[in-house]
Give the backbone structure.
Amino acid sequence: MFPLLKTQFDKLLQAGANLLSPGSIFGLPQLGFAFGLAVVWLGVRQWRRRGAMRPGVLVRALKGSRRIITHPSTRADLFYYFVNTFAIGGLIGWGIVSGLAVSHGVVHGLDAAFGARHASHAPDWVWRLTITVAAFLGYEFGYYVDHYAKHKIPFLWAFHQTHHSAEVLTPLTVFRVHPVDTLIFVDVVAACAGFAHGLVSYAAGRPVDLYVVDGVNVLSVAGLFVLAQLQHSQFWIPLRGLAGRLLLSPAHHQIHHSTDPAHFNSNLGSFVAVFDWLFGTLVVPPEKSPGLVFGVEQPSGEPHRVITLLLAPFGNALRVGQRLLAPGRRTRAL
């Protein structure tokens, strides 16, 4: 009994620390920065359209937040926040693949194939910058591969659709992820980021450290402040032109959650749009919001019940498996 209470108390302390950590996917510094950025964006947009900034526009936007805050989808997101924080808060640590192990394996494999490289004489900052960018792009590529697979493979979609069942978007929606979805994700991104890290480590001929903030890649931290909190939000902030082909703005990700079939399987990256651009899954958002509707058709009933979020995906995945094993058998489509 007491060890269990101590474990939960430790998780409570960790949750509090995460709310203040700049490297957290959901923290007060990031939320504050994102809200300030949204206010500035609304003000600049009003200035460009009407030649003046009107506080009433922001007030109306905030009033519209009441419907989102009280929506059953938001309550489900809050439930999932507590589930991921306390019930399965250590899940990421259960990943099968270690990014560091992959990096070491790449270095050893290249050593065996091509021989060990002599340590580079380039300044330390050059290699630190290179490995920081490489690891970030490796993570982003892994995110894209994982996300693409979950939208294309029915068995994986059975678990990933929990995230897409959100009918309104808030920063808490990032926690609306099924545990199986998370396990697969952390292994894929660890493998890809570790592979990129190993390539640069071998090229440098010596151990190289990333530039980090609170133990997190500094480029990922920048994305957490500038993009992540607003990607699941009501604020329509689009990047267009070349910027919209390099970075995934909040509007890009809101399109990803759209129920419009024209938007299905699009904008699958995290912060970087390059892989979507290369592989033909990029949809650049229009200047004005098209009034998107969010959510996904659930085969198991009401989308915000605990049983639908946590347990139903196993049944959905089982039906997919049955269909694969017995293709002649008629089963209810997902």
